[in-house]
Structure to design on (260 residues):
């Protein structure tokens, strides 16, 4: 059991402490800009506008009675919208989260920003994407330090910390394998990848790449015929393949490429 003394008041239950911490995080996220300018803004600008029923306001406002009184328009609870991020001036095509959900990337056809998921504030970027064209997909590396962007017939891996393109890989479908940080790519060998293949389906080739340097590890991790469609599993351990003539779905192991 956790027993915490906060501003002279006791919080004795675990769930009560959790609620207060979550409310305090909302308080900091909502007023991070004035608070980061000067500490007195905690009392001048933040507490007076905190929702009346918030845990922070109920515990601290009575202890600071000389703060600015708000007579109208003060909300009773925190809004459902945690923050509004307005970094782009064009349509956002993709929003993708890191595996631990601490950061997210917002992507247009021109730029990409990486932001904090708690506040929406920019962590890095903008990264210019003018030379690549339309973005068709994106995903974070397992360590959250790189982002894979899919552009038509190739993908680009961006280093978020360095703010630069690391390498590019040819193919049509891509994903980071979460357990080891490698990259798997799939492309059609015969026929078109866009689904305009004939009734016999098409043949796909899956390759494995080093996620840090982009070097090819396996030129032919697996090859499947008679394919009507594919999908990576959420954990990226498997590739689901729809076989056209047999009306079945197979799961291929992306760790070793052995038979399904």
């Amino acid at each position: 059991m956790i027993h915490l003394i906060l501003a002279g008041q006791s919080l004795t239950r675990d769930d009560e402490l959790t609620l207060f911490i979550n409310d305090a995080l909302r308080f900091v996220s909502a007023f991070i800009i004035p608070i980061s300018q000067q500490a007195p803004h905690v009392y001048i600008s933040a507490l007076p506008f905190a929702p009346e029923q918030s845990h922070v306001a109920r515990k601290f406002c009575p202890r600071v009675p000389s703060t600015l009184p708000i007579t109208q328009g003060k909300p009773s609870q925190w809004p459902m919208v945690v923050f509004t991020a307005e970094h782009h001036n064009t349509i956002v095509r993709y929003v993708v989260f890191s595996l631990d959900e601490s950061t997210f990337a917002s992507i247009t056809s021109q730029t990409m920003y990486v932001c904090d998921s708690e506040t929406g504030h920019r962590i890095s970027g903008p990264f210019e994407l003018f030379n690549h064209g339309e973005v068709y997909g994106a995903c974070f590396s397992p360590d959250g330090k790189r982002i894979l962007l899919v552009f038509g017939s190739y993908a680009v891996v961006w280093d978020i910390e360095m703010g630069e393109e690391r390498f590019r890989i040819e193919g049509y479908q891509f994903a980071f394998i979460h357990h080891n940080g490698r990259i798997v790519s799939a492309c059609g060998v015969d026929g078109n990848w866009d689904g305009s293949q004939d009734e016999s389906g098409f043949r796909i080739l899956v390759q494995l790449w080093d996620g840090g340097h982009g070097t090819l590890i396996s030129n032919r991790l697996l090859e499947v015929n008679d394919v009507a469609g594919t999908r990576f599993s959420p954990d990226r351990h498997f590739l689901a393949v729809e076989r056209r003539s047999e009306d079945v779905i197979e799961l291929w192991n992306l760790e070793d490429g052995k038979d399904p």
Notes: The longest strand covers residues 216-232.
